[in-house]
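ugh ok so i messed up the first submission bc i forgot one of the chains. this is the corrected input, ALL of the components this time, i swear. 331 residues overall. if the numbers dont match what u have on ur side tell me asap before i send this to the collaborators (the ones from the other lab, u know who)
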Amino acid sequence: MAVYTEVPFAEAAALLERLNLGTLTELRGIQGGIENTNYFVTSEREGQTVEHVLTVFERLGFEHLPFYLHLMKHLATHGVPVPEPAADARGEILHTVQGKPAAVVDKLRGASELAPGAAHCAAVGALLARMHLVGRDFDRQQPNLRGLPWWNETVPVVLPFLAPEQAALLRAELAYQNHIAEGSAYKALPRGPIHADLFRDNVMFDGEAVSGFFDFYFAGVDTWLFDLAVCLNDWCVRHGGERDGEPVPELQQAFLNAYEGVRPLTAAERTLLPALLRAGALRFWLSRLWDLHLPREAALLKPHDPGHFERVLRARLPLAAPTRPAETAAA
Ligand SMILES: Nc1ncnc2c1ncn2[C@@H]1O[C@H](COP(=O)(O)OP(=O)(O)O)[C@@H](O)[C@H]1O
Ligand SMILES: N[C@@H](CCOP(=O)(O)O)C(=O)O
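and heres the new structure output, hopefully the right one now
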């Protein structure tokens, strides 16, 4: 259940009116999601039924939200299918509901595709590249708050919870990523605003066409290649079963071809893709370990399995032998 803050009908109705979104007719709590309170809101405007999503932010504060919401607005107004945050008469897109930060965004059509084929991967790959290009003109700055500095801070915090062999892998990978980040090829990588968490559950499809990307609340300025690696590690690997975490080459090729159809990779990006695939796996192994062993506001977070990303990382190591779930005990 993802309604942590009960929003009174009258408060939601007043907000919709201020946003010129018509008269509220229905307010429905959304069961999915783990971080925020989300409602589907239906209203009548000029004889039309319109649908939006009201999000009350439970963890993110007023200081970080303008970057995420303005990025969504920038992308939406430049033709990237992203839910557009609704503005009031003064142009404000960050609102307050029950004393917490809140936003109202367009409701996307369709549903997530958790078992994507090559066509789904290609559709997302092409849009990811478009999003990167359109983001070049976005003028706000905020780092990826789950980037290298956070990995360096967080690895020592989770190490005591790991088996010796897992701890050795985590330490070695962090050292490798620090080394990569110091290199001239890394410094030459193109950068800009990235989604940084564009997993299968953050994309809606209407048939095989993407109706939109959502959940920009880990976005930040970082290398485009890292964003691509995060996607390849979720869209193009096996989920579950004996071979959980192994890459699926035909899906990866479909994703990459479509991405490069819009924005070809630079030479530095080609060289560093294997290293950044490891970085993407490390990032989510680490955050899942952190959520599992050091739950913040535990009631709000249902931790995902860290073992999956440990397997993705092992499968991305040079000369990696196929890993089996049983060989790598979940942390
Ligand atoms: N703009 C949107 N359009 C349609 N559905 C949405 C939209 N935003 C969120 N949802 C629905 O709400 C669910 C929870 O949203 P999500 O952003 O994943 O929540 P959380 O940040 O709490 O994890 C999604 O799985 C999706 O079904
Ligand atoms: N994609 C991340 C979790 C991020 O949570 P979200 O529900 O806000 O997308 C993971 O799978 O670890």
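quick check: The two ends are 26 Å apart (CA to CA). that seems consistent at least. Residues 325-331 have pLDDT under 50 and may be disordered.
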